[in-house]
Input
Amino acid sequence: MTLHVPFDNSYGKLPDRFFTRVAPTPVAEPSLIALNAALAKELGLDAEALRSNEGVAALAGNAVPDGADPLAQVYAGHQFGGWNPQLGDGRAILLGEVIDSKGVRRDLQLKGSGPTPYSRRGDGRAWLGPVLREYVVSEAMHALGIPTTRALAAVATGEPVIRERQLPGAVLTRVASSHIRVGTFQYFAARNDIDAIRKLMDYVIERHYPGIDGPLGMLDALVERQAHLVAQWMGVGFIHGVMNTDNTHVAGETIDYGPCAFMDAYHPGKVFSSIDHMGRYAYGRQPEIAIWNLAQLATALLPVIDEDTNIAVDKATEVVNRFPDLYAAAWLRVFRGKLGLSGEEEADANLIARLLTHMAEAGMDFTNSFRALTDDADGFLSTNPVLAEWAAEWSARLDRDGADPATQKALMRRANPAVIPRNHRVEEMISAAVEGNYAPFFKLNDVLYRPFDLAPDNSDFAAPPRPEQEVRRTFCGT
Ligand code: AMP
Ligand code: MG
Output
């Protein structure tokens, strides 16, 4: 079986200063952990060929498949608000692009594939834990219907990587509609390379926003996508954890699953990342951080918006300022769905907010509370008597919608997952994998592919952690 990847590469045709051509570094003993056959098919790739020795060699970076044009992209970024003028792919290599079955151009990228000129002091490698976390969580995100990068494969390298201790190494094959970040624009803006900003903008528009006109049109389209994206995160209790501008995708995909996590008990101030001491990227702050990141993109685009900086600032500000209303509308749409509301009433935001306030005060499980309101509202409300008044208002509000209860339930069932990648499950899966047992990885993945319907024998995947299982901190994916 020979591997044939129908590469159709475009990023490598951009000027040399956009990237460095670099091949992946081979690993000692590659072995396939997981291959996402459904995604392979979507990409027009033969899953069997990817599983063959030749395929695994390609997924490990031990062989460069025909037609690939391996390169590391350069970018800059604000990390936790602090400016870093040069980051770039320090442990990731873009193999090339393929056109998927829907005609969409997708990147194939190896993550953990060895050093690049942008590795700084890093080893260019990833250990098994973050690779499997990204695999599981990004695929779960996709199953939840939220725009995200995908995971095509995970390969064990047979080599140790040194972190706090020695850990098994792995390579993730990541698929994305592109790997262009707000930080990619910032990189060129910081160098006052207006020609590059323009070329990158033209490329982004052609690839992600065909038909859209100029920098303001592109910015406007991204403002809208980010507003929707963050609203969707909020609706499933997702905390990205490192919303740096280099982790902010220019087409609004969720990218760079580092210390990310889904909340168990609801609290807007919830933070998981071990390095987020100030709570900059707390659950409830994600919308304002998204605006901040969009403002950084706007700043990078100023020179191509207008020669007169004041005029450019005014125009860009106007566009970025659309975010709050777009976000509020998207958030309402998400949470109305979670409460089974199809119509729109002025007081809906308040109705939702009061429920959330109560959930925060009582430390209630976010996912399971909404799911209980979906599956057994009476039972749930009877155990939460403080919600009696709220429940009466909700019920009256549902009546005013006039939809039949079955339709309302169906709406709620599509908006309220029964199962999310809970941290304790993810950590348990990683611990088992480090011991060579991948069964929990496959099981978790399998359950998360159908997040809205939970088979009775999988009900423990819906359970919140017991106190001793609770994960309070997640670590960056290095
Ligand atoms: P991240 O926190 O994963 O978004 O990474 C931030 C920057 O650090 C990116 O430029 C990464 O490519 C780089 N980086 C992270 N881990 C490593 C590593 N082990 N070796 C080299 N570069 C790394
Ligand atoms: Mg990153």
